[in-house]
Design goal:
By secondary structure, the chain is an alpha+beta fold. The protein contains 9 helices and 15 strands. Strands 13-12-11-14-15 form a 5-stranded mixed sheet, with helices on one face. A 4-stranded mixed sheet has the order 4-1-7-8, with helices on one face. The protein has a 4-stranded antiparallel sheet with strand order 3-2-5-6. The chain is elongated and about 75 Å long. It is found in: Cell envelope.
């Protein structure tokens, strides 16, 4: 006899899609990975069966509509959606966690729609812009993104506080680590030791532990590197002043475009308790030193000329440049990636 799964060794979705139009299939995703896909019958019905030894955050997609579910073995779900309805409204039963996350699903859908519209708008406006104009446009769009994601973060935190279970966890797991670092680190501390049998929870806890080392409020890891004159410099040498640790390179266009703003802030606040440590990801000493001179970077510059192979790249988990950390006089991280008007506003508020 062939082996078979019992109802308790898999989950089942018995679904119906109304007004499917030209949509003939539904697909099941975990993050961006497609797990399964099935055809709709003539009545728009489908059945999906999978195994999930622990609750997993999944997305059911029909046409352009996405529906968020939390499923585990033993769940027998009844699902219905109308593709002609406004928004991503749907009906679900048979999975208590899915029924809970449904209350947050419209908030997730609004976030995803905002991101898609923002990306489309940026692409249309960015066409044929020169580098400087493109940088300014990107900064404008990043401000819009961060503002919207702050509201979304607040909504997710409220939901997680109201639902102290895996539904709350999955809402938090949709947050952007760049925007919601403080909230995510605090949440990881709160749930430590719970749901240890859940792979996604364990991965989240591990990731937040790595993130916490470089989180706002943490002491910046010390490191040592060399100036163009081969003088050894430590980050801890800069204690006593607000210090911008600026990761850049001569070959990085956005870095070079931001340099005039950093020069301006340096001259405005260098006598008020502010300084800068430039950390270059160059591998060519000539290019590095020419860029320092051409851009008027008068503050201390260091590099081991190992580009992405530099130890400090791994220490600070640098994935792209420009990246910056702003430290208080005790060496505590107080802000990240402040550029343009944001850096000016922070220094004005703090040092004027």
């Amino acid at each position: 006899m062939l082996p078979a799964c019992t109802d308790n060794e898999q989950f089942t979705i018995e679904g119906e899609i109304s007004n499917a139009g030209n949509t003939h299939t539904v697909s099941l995703y975990e993050a961006d990975r497609k797990l399964d896909s099935v055809f709709l019958n003539e009545q728009g019905r489908f059945v999906l069966r999978r195994t999930a030894s622990h609750p997993r955050l999944l997305t059911l997609q029909a046409g352009t509509k996405k529906y968020h579910l939390i499923l585990q073995n033993g769940d027998r779900v009844t699902f219905h959606a109308d593709l002609m309805s406004d928004g991503n409204d749907y009906e679900i039963s048979g999975s208590p966690l899915s029924e809970k996350i449904q209350h947050f699903a419209s908030t997730i859908a609004e976030k995803e729609q905002f991101e898609a519209e923002l990306e489309s708008s940026f692409a249309s406006q960015a066409a044929r812009l020169d580098d400087a104009a493109l940088m300014n446009l990107r900064e404008q769009f990043m401000q819009k993104y961060r503002q919207h994601m702050k509201s979304y973060t607040d909504a997710a935190v409220r939901f997680a506080n109201e639902h102290d279970d895996l539904a709350g966890f999955y809402a938090m797991s949709t947050l952007d680590k760049e925007v919601a670092e403080t909230e995510l680190v605090a949440y990881a501390d709160r749930i430590a030791g719970r749901w240890d049998d859940n792979v996604q929870v364990r991965q989240f806890i591990d990731e937040m532990a790595r993130l916490k080392r470089l989180a706002i409020g943490q002491p910046a890891p010390d490191f040592e590197s060399l100036t163009p004159n081969n003088q050894r410099v430590k980050l801890s040498d800069f204690r006593g002043k607000y210090t911008l640790v600026d990761f850049w390179a001569s070959w990085c266009g956005p870095c070079r475009q931001e340099n005039p703003n950093i020069v301006k802030q340096y001259h405005t606040y260098k006598d008020k308790g502010f300084t800068i440590l430039g950390v270059s990801l160059d591998d060519n000493p000539g290019s590095w030193m020419r860029a320092i001179k051409d851009d008027g970077l008068e503050w201390t510059q260091v590099s081991d000329l190992q580009q992405w192979g530099s130890e400090v790249v791994g220490l600070y988990r640098i994935q792209a440049i420009p990246t910056s950390y702003l430290l208080d006089p005790k060496g505590i991280i107080v802000a990240k990636n402040l550029r343009g008007a944001e850096l000016e506003a922070f220094l004005k508020k703090t040092l004027d």
